[in-house]
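A favour, since you know our structure tokens better than I do. It will help me judge whether the discrete encoding reads sensibly. The space below this message is yours for that.
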Amino acid sequence: MNAALPDQEAVQAADDGAPAPASRSVRIQQILESEIFSGHLAPGARLDEVELAARFRVSRTPVREALRHLASAGLIRIRPRQPAVVVELPASRLIEMFQVMAELESLCARMAARRISASQLATLSALHDELIELSKTDRVADFYEVNRRFHETIYEASQNEFLAEQTRALRNRIGAYRRLVTQKPSRRAATLTEHDDVLRAIATGNEEAAADAMRGHVNLLGEKLLDFIALFPKSGR
């Protein structure tokens, strides 16, 4: 396949129903994520922009954007004047990152229980209701996005910009793995129950309960940990 030229890309975007450039980069990112998680792209595998552009029949722009997001998630390493490479991130390292994430989000929830505004609480409740409806469908990508907005609303409701920035930065690094876990129907169902606990605690101003509920929601413990490890190909453990 030949890589699409920039003007060809513009024509594709202009066609009815054709994805915009940003949508194409997201789709490329998701495909490569899936191939990394499945082991199809093993640690050390090279990701050449030109080859990927030819494979996906796009210009190098959406490919470069997809690679940038994969690098920010810690899945690949971008090297100057060389193809990017898939990195190996042991499950033990990811578990440590989730543990830190759980504490950061727990603190966000604690502060949100004390500081959330009426409009933010209404938004949080509406997002929870939207997740309930999405759980009845197979729209996993939409569920993940609304779930992200639910958490983002809590970061903002903490009214602590530095905390929100640090929490968001770590979430972006492990976002690909959270998306992977979301693929499991049982995990989506559990998310609704856990979100309900978080929402109720924040709405009633119960700081301790909000912190505990969020920590339990994000942390990988018990069956959640086993489910997470089971998602990795055996060769990558």
Summary: Strands lie at 46-47, 76-79, 82-86. The chain has two domains: 24-86, 91-230. DSSP finds eleven helices and three strands in the chain. Residues 1-19 have pLDDT under 50 and may be disordered.
